[in-house]
Here is the input.
Amino acid sequence: MEILKYMETHGGNALYFIDSDCNNLLTIDKGFSQANDFAKLLLLDNISFFRNQLGSNSFIIGESDGKHCLFSDEGDIQCNYIYCDGSITSTMTITAYESIECTDGPVSGTAFVNTSRVETKKNIEKYDKNAINEIINTDIYEFNYKSEKDKSKKHIGFVIGENYNYSNDIVAVDKDKKEIGVDTYSMISVAYKAIQEQQEEIEELKEKDRQKDILIQTLIERIERLEKEIKDGKDKL
Here is the structure.
């Protein structure tokens, strides 16, 4: 390995170490952009140590504008994919822009919040299907997952697959439109609408009962008047 040269770059001094094939092995850069004067250490063009403009120290593997994994001394981890054969615990926030998969265990926390603000949505339309029918036409089963023991506590839910009845409105799909699981937010929303529909039916029944009560009271009053008129007529005789 030999030092190629000591040269000025981006307004700061940089030192390059290359091998005999001119592959860059190590770069020591005093200022990695014109916007700041923080140092950067780059190994093999894919591993770098630097301090960002906010002052935190960071370690990144991969290309910062492509697939990479970044760690900072503020406790942040940013990457394209994380695979963990065990548990992941965070005392603050875990953010995923595509998905979080846990194939053989639970995901737990104090709250799970679905993004629902209007600023995040488009193509907004009212759901006008009969939600009660969607629920009635979905069969509920008890089951174990194949990764569990036969004597494990059974789960309760519907089954996605041929020869099983379920609503397509409450399933999640991948980018290829393959049904992969339950969309819990959609399922709760459909159940919520079903409650609204049932409440409307209850209110209609209550109104019918009220009208019947009025009719019955009217008939009672008419009968009482007729009985009184008959009694008064007999007394006159």
